Amino acid sequence: MDVNEIRQDFWVLANSSLAYLDNAASSLKPKPVIDMINHYYRDLGVNIHRGVYRLSYEATDLYEKARQKVADFINCKFEEVVFTRGASSALNLVASSLGMNEIKAGDEIITSELEHHSSMLPWQNVARIKKAKLVYVPLNEEKKITVENFKKVLSDKTKIVALNYVSNAMGYITPIKEIINLAHEKGAIVIVDAAQAVPHQSVDVKALDCDFLAFSGHKMCGPTGIGVLYGKYEFLQSMEPIEFGGDMIDYVGLQEVTYKDAPYKFETGTPLIAGAIGLGGAIDYLLNIGFDFIVKQEEELRTYLLKEMKKLSDITIYNPTTETGIIAFNINGVHPHDAASVFDEDDVAIRAGHHCAQPLMHCLNQIATIRASLYFYNNKADIDKLIKAIKKAKSFFAQFM
Amino acid sequence: MDVNEIRQDFWVLANSSLAYLDNAASSLKPKPVIDMINHYYRDLGVNIHRGVYRLSYEATDLYEKARQKVADFINCKFEEVVFTRGASSALNLVASSLGMNEIKAGDEIITSELEHHSSMLPWQNVARIKKAKLVYVPLNEEKKITVENFKKVLSDKTKIVALNYVSNAMGYITPIKEIINLAHEKGAIVIVDAAQAVPHQSVDVKALDCDFLAFSGHKMCGPTGIGVLYGKYEFLQSMEPIEFGGDMIDYVGLQEVTYKDAPYKFETGTPLIAGAIGLGGAIDYLLNIGFDFIVKQEEELRTYLLKEMKKLSDITIYNPTTETGIIAFNINGVHPHDAASVFDEDDVAIRAGHHCAQPLMHCLNQIATIRASLYFYNNKADIDKLIKAIKKAKSFFAQFM
Amino acid sequence: MSYGNLETLYRQVIMDHYKNPRNKGLKSGEDYYQVHLKNPTCGDDLTLQIKVKNNYITEVHHDGSGCSISMSAASVMSETIMGLKIEDAKKIIDNYLHMVKGEAYDAEIDMGDAIVYQGVSQFPARFKCATIAWNALDKVLEKHKVPDEK
Amino acid sequence: MSYGNLETLYRQVIMDHYKNPRNKGLKSGEDYYQVHLKNPTCGDDLTLQIKVKNNYITEVHHDGSGCSISMSAASVMSETIMGLKIEDAKKIIDNYLHMVKGEAYDAEIDMGDAIVYQGVSQFPARFKCATIAWNALDKVLEKHKVPDEK
Ligand SMILES: Cc1ncc(COP(=O)(O)O)c(C=O)c1O
Ligand SMILES: Cc1ncc(COP(=O)(O)O)c(C=O)c1O
Question: Domain B33-287 belongs to what architecture?
Answer without folding.
Answer: 3-Layer(aba) Sandwich (3.40)
